[in-house]
Amino acid sequence: MLDSTSHFQRIEPNRSAQEQLRDILTLITELNTALQSQIAFLRPRGMTLPTGTLERLNDVRQRIETMGRTLTSGQIELRQLRALAQTTALLNSSLDVDAVLNTVMDTVVQLTGAERGFILLKNEATGEIEFRIARGIDREQLGREDFKISNTIIREVLTSGAPVLTDNARADDRFVGNDSIVGYGLRSILAVPLVSNGEVIGVVYCDNRILAGLFKAHEKDLLQAFAGQAAVAIQNARLFASARARLAEITEVRDLMDNVFQSISSGIITFDARGVINAFNPAAEQITGATAADAIGRFLPAILPAFSEVIGGTLEQVVTQNVSQLVEAEINLDQRGWRYWRVVLSPLRDPETGSTGAALVLDDLTETREREAQLAQARVYLPLALVENLRSEDIAAMGGQECEITVLFSDVRGFTSFSERLEPEDLMQIINRYLAVASDAINLSDGLVDKYIGDAVTGLFNTPLNIQADHALRAVRAAIMMRHEVASLHETLPPDQRLLFGVGIHTGLAVLGNVGSAERREFSAIGDAMDMAKLLQENAGRGEIVLSAETWAQVKDYIPCEPVAPRKTKDRADFTVMYRVL
After folding, report:
1. CB 501 within 8 A of CB 543
2. For the chain, how many structural domains are there in total?
């Protein structure tokens, strides 16, 4: 007899369901064999087993076999779903989309049995479809020579947004005559769209060039599930990349603004709506003597009380009325003494919160004002034309150039005997009034006051600093103006202080440039023109203006003159006549 109990004790409950089913099938086979032996033993004795025993046993075996196949299929599907869940978790945990998609593509190829797997994406800039991932069954990256797929199927998926499944592409009526399918030897093909926000952004493509009937509806559903997660991951990665690029751009701009803020020579102080300092650049530290560490987060009166007293009301007005203001004030900084500051205050408004603050641009003009005061004092000792042209001409580089000029040489007549009767202070006061008349006349005619030599004044016309086409006429008119102004001056002076000029004017060539040492230089003219003008002045009587023949030739149509013979010639053969202005 069959000891069924001993047989069923061989089935171990801790083994897998498939293993247990295999054990049951083995027992059923053994039981069937045993029953066949029992039937052969019982039949000669006129006995038999109950009717249908073997049929029922065979039915049980068939059902168990069906159950085994179903269980195997379910376990394969469960393994695929677990793998998909794992790759989905990986997909959602990383923003390195290429690395993730490579791993997922390997999983899909493995689970579906595909020979190759590709992910193609639309280029965001051009809209062209591009290979993004290409993996083989050996999990290796495919080379460019392997990028031979059915463009017809790719275009259909991109256009329709629907998956395409064919278990034998060569025999599929939809693709009869397709060169890529025939030429590349494609058999099983599965392609599903990548859809993000209702837009097809790419395609997941799998194929096998050897086996037909590889892909079924289950593999299509699996790949579609993956494609949905992959599309979300790709979109997230793109958004992250865009955000990262934007952040990098903002960071770069911020760093640039910080560098600009730090390098601005003007002091920059900004305040929030409460008046609390929230920015204090290095220039502000240098100008005010306060540090950014002490200033930021505090109110202005706490760190610069004297400054706050001066601009406090203006700062409040800037914030409340949303207007810019300019303030110039002297501030007493105690140990640093009095400083002169120029302050520009401007409102700042936050576009998101609407709160208002202020920005303060601070310049310390103390040294500038002191320097300007010194320059103003120094200008008194410089020729006016030289001062006005210091910025437009490179005076320091003017080593010397020859040009035609007109020289005016004037000297006070009778000054030597006059000076013997006065005290030095009175003498200096009176002679300065006469020299001022001569200088004003030269300046008003745009001449250059060259120098003062005791009671004499020289003026230059048509130098590189005062180029003039009518320089001779200007010089003569300056001398005439000088004569008229002296007459007016006499109306305010006592008779014993009334003096007159003798003026000589010559037009000729001279060399103009800087003369002197590195420590002290003057812009002046040298040459025969200067000597001739001085000789003409020595021939002029009290109140007379005499011109050389060269000057007279240029002004004779405008100024009435009469020729006279010179009293002094200094043995100059060319000096035989001069012209007295009437």
Report:
1. yes
2. 4
- Residue 258 inside a domain? The answer is no
Exposed (0-12), middle (13-18) or buried (19+): which is 569, by Cβ within 10 Å?
A: middle
Cα-Cα end-to-end distance for the chain: 169
* Strand ranges (E), 93-228: 116-122, 129-136, 164-166, 188-196, 199-208
For the segment 232-254, what is each residue's pLDDT rounded down to a tens digit? 777 777 778 788 888 888 888 77
Torsion of CA 53, 56, 61, 62, to 10 degrees: 150
**Within a domain: residue 101?**
yes
Q: Are residues 198 and 274 in the same domain?
A: no
What's the pTM?
0.43
* 145 and 34 fall within a common domain: no
For residue 343, the domain's CATH number is: 3.30.450.20
Are both 126 and 217 inside the same structural domain?
yes
Q: How many residues does the chain have?
A: 582
CA–centroid distance for 90 within its chain: 39
Please report, as a single letter, which amino acid is at residue 5: T
Instruction: Please indicate, yes or no, whether residues 65 and 120 belong to a single structural domain of this protein.
Output: no
* Strand 456-461, strand 277-280: pairing: unpaired
pLDDT digits (tens, 9 = 90+) for 153-198: 888 888 888 998 887 766 676 766 565 655 566 778 888 898 888 8
Residue at 576: amino acid letter: T
The sign of the dihedral angle between the CA atoms of 219, 225, 226, 231 is positive
483 & 571 share domain: yes
- Do 515 and 524 touch, CB atoms closer than 8 A? yes
Residue 529: CB atoms within 10 A of its CB come to 23
What CATH number should be reported for the domain holding residue 103? 3.30.450.40
430-449 tens-digit pLDDT: 888 889 999 999 999 999 88
Distances in whole angstroms, Cα of residue 315 to Cα of each of 2, 261, 270, 304: 109, 21, 11, 14
CA pair distance 506, 534, nearest whole angstrom: 9
Tell me the CATH number at 480.
Answer: 3.30.70.1230
3-state SS string for 348-376: EECCCCCCEEEEEEEEECHHHHHHHHHHH
Cβ atoms of residues 529 and 549 within 8 Å = no
**Lookup: tokens for 256:** 């640039």
Same domain, 126 and 182: yes
In a domain? residue 163? yes
Do 356 and 400 reside in the same domain of the chain?
no
Which residues are CB-neighbours of 499 under 8 A, at least 6 positions away? Answer: 412, 413, 414, 415, 418, 434, 486
∠ CA 432-434-436, rounded to 5°? 65
Rounded average pLDDT over 141-157: 73
Domain co-membership, 415 together with 524: yes
Task: Report residue 31: phi and psi, to 5°.
Answer: -65, -40
Q: Which domain holds residue 62?
A: 4-77
